[in-house]
């Protein structure tokens, strides 16, 4: 067995020669651990006489404290050394250009909705939000859509249960508004609508903006004036508009509007008409006193035409290369 002095010397040598933190930890365990060499010296004390115990325990404790402080000191030294080596190796080139965080911008659909809102605000309209979960009454019955109408087919409508559904058109909001508000009414309601359809011109979710005017003496030419002026504003005065008669159960007469693009192809963008007397009756508005007109514009459709987008689905694929082209705000 080494003398205490010899042991202390060899421990100091080990500490001095260690080059890694792990090595230092091993040394700590080797000498000071539960089964460590130095610990066994302490344990040996019990065989000594009381006087010797007193004397040696002081010395041993002192040496132990010194070992601990040397290990700690070496630990600091090694940590600093390793850090310095790392800093030298990981040299930072501060002249490299940084990574920029890019600013976000509005989705083209949001932009179009805002644009339309601003146009109608100038004509004294207000805009309101509306629920996307509707019931059969507001989405169909009250809008004079007969029970056997193909739009009710489960192919088109996402039903939630026997009565509730994801609205297929913003027209459902006409009923809610006319039941709650007294004329005169001048409102637009933009929002999402849902139909079970998917190809280059249909997605299961798309956006419409509905307009509703209820007042005395509202007639078809008021409606036509608004539609034409909106389209001139949105597409420019050169736009080629086809206003043609159509059929919707909730308007009479009804019309649809097509825009004819540069290639002579027409694309339907909105439906409109004079609100049907049956609908006015359903909402307790006296059609002898008041008349109403309404329109529903397909937001994706007009956005596609305005920017020459050929596939409706690109709006919702979240391809940043597509979306980045619309940095107009
Ligand atoms: N809701 C119809 C659709 O989704 C569009 C429409 C037609 C809205 C005529 C109207 C209207 O307000 O008067 O196809």
From TrEMBL:
SUPFAM superfamilies documented for this protein: Class II aaRS and biotin synthetases, tRNA-binding arm
GO molecular function ontology, one term from the record: ATP binding
Native species: Buchnera aphidicola
Protein name in the entry: Phenylalanine--tRNA ligase alpha subunit
Domain Aminoacyl-transfer RNA synthetases class-II family profile per the UniProt entry, residue ranges: 116-317
Subunit structure: Tetramer of two alpha and two beta subunits.
Localization of this protein: Cytoplasm
Keyword Aminoacyl-tRNA synthetase belongs to the record: yes
Ligase listed as a keyword: yes
Family: Belongs to the class-II aminoacyl-tRNA synthetase family. Phe-tRNA synthetase alpha subunit type 1 subfamily.
Enzymatic class: ligase
Catalysis performed (reactions): tRNA(Phe) + L-phenylalanine + ATP = L-phenylalanyl-tRNA(Phe) + AMP + diphosphate + H(+)
Gene3D superfamilies per record: Bira Bifunctional Protein, Domain 2 (3.30.930.10)
One GO location term (cellular component): cytoplasm
Keywords tagged on the record: Aminoacyl-tRNA synthetase, ATP-binding, Cytoplasm, Ligase, Magnesium, Metal-binding, Nucleotide-binding, Protein biosynthesis
BP-aspect Gene Ontology terms: phenylalanyl-tRNA aminoacylation
HAMAP family listed in its UniProt record: Phe_tRNA_synth_alpha1 (MF_00281)
EC number: 6.1.1.20
Cofactor binding description: Binds 2 magnesium ions per tetramer.
Transmembrane parts of this sequence: none
Named cofactor requirement(s): Mg(2+)
